């Protein structure tokens, strides 16, 4: 057989083997992601006593998978900063995410009151001309002044979110002398207006932290953060609070109760 034919024949015989290896690696990676999702839920909801995960062999038996798949799943969780491996101890939970509900209109301190103390560092607070998109959403004339507030919010001393807030100036003026360091804006808005808040429109997406946000939140530059955009209305329907909130994704988890309606 000519040399070129032998090479061609050898390549054709090896191709299925290479393809099979790639398929096995892909399937193992898929199973690792699936297992990581299951383990993530357990470790975030306190499913492991003393925050220590079972031995790899136990996890492999419990989830009917291989130890290699378990190791890959744990590597994924370690890369997220949720677990670590300690010599003589095993794999332990090293980070905690706090639950933030999406089915109830509450301020951050109200939402996380069972998990610790929320404090606010007011970084900026002043009247500014409303950018056109802000003016439109708050129903104020284009270029009219609104109160702009930037706050770094901490839970138990750890940076949790960076909040950028716009409030119509007729309401915002009263916020200038308020205790924003220890009080949710929601409570203050209700006290100032004499009305309860009614509803809010929200959008939640993942964005990369810009240099400023990363520095303030003490997060790696370019790290993914959860960005919650929220326009809150009074009970009478008036929009009074437009917020852009960047949460550290490694410290917060969003959840809600949804009902099917067609």
Tell me the distance between the termini. 68 Å
> What strand line-up does the widest sheet have?
4-5-6-9-8-7
Query: Looking at the structure, what is the overall shape?
Result: elongated
Beta-sheet strand percentage? 25-35%
The averaged pLDDT comes out at 88
Detail the poorly predicted runs. none
State the helical fraction. 25-40%
Radius of gyration: 25 Å
Q: SS-based structural class? A: alpha+beta
Q: Main sheet, how many strands, which sense, barrel?
A: 6 strands, antiparallel
Question: What is the total tally of β strands?
Answer: 10
> In sequence order, what are the helices and strands, one letter per element?
HHHEEEHEHEEHHEHEEE
Give an overview in words:
The protein is built from 8 helices and 10 strands. Helices cover 37% and strands 32% of the residues. The longest helix is centred in the N-terminal third of the chain and has 42 residues. A 6-stranded antiparallel beta sheet has the order 4-5-6-9-8-7. Strands 1-2 form a two-stranded antiparallel ribbon. It has 262 residues and is α+β, with helices and mostly antiparallel strands.
């Amino acid at each position: 057989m000519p040399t070129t034919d032998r090479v061609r024949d050898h390549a054709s015989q090896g191709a299925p083997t290479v393809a099979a290896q790639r398929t096995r690696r892909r399937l193992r990676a898929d199973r690792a992601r699936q297992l990581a999702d299951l383990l993530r839920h357990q470790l975030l909801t306190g499913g492991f006593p003393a925050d220590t995960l079972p031995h790899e062999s136990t996890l492999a038996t419990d989830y009917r998978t291989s130890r290699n798949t378990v190791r890959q799943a744990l590597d994924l969780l370690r890369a997220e900063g949720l677990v670590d491996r300690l010599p003589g101890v095993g794999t332990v939970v090293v980070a905690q995410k706090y639950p933030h509900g999406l089915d109830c209109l509450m301020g951050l301190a109200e939402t996380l009151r069972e998990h610790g103390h929320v404090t606010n560092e007011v970084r900026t607070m002043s009247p500014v001309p409303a950018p056109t998109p802000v003016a439109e959403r708050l129903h104020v004339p284009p270029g009219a002044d609104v109160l702009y507030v930037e706050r770094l919010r901490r839970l138990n001393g750890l940076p949790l979110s960076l909040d950028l807030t716009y409030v119509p100036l007729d309401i915002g003026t009263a916020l200038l002398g308020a205790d924003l360091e220890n009080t949710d804006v929601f409570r203050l808005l209700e006290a100032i207006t004499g009305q309860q808040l009614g509803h809010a429109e929200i959008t939640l997406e993942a964005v990369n932290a810009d240099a400023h946000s990363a520095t303030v939140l003490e997060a790696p530059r370019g790290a993914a953060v959860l960005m919650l955009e929220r326009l809150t209305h009074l009970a009478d329907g008036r929009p009074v609070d437009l917020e852009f909130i960047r949460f550290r994704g490694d410290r917060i988890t969003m959840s809600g109760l949804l009902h099917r309606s067609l």
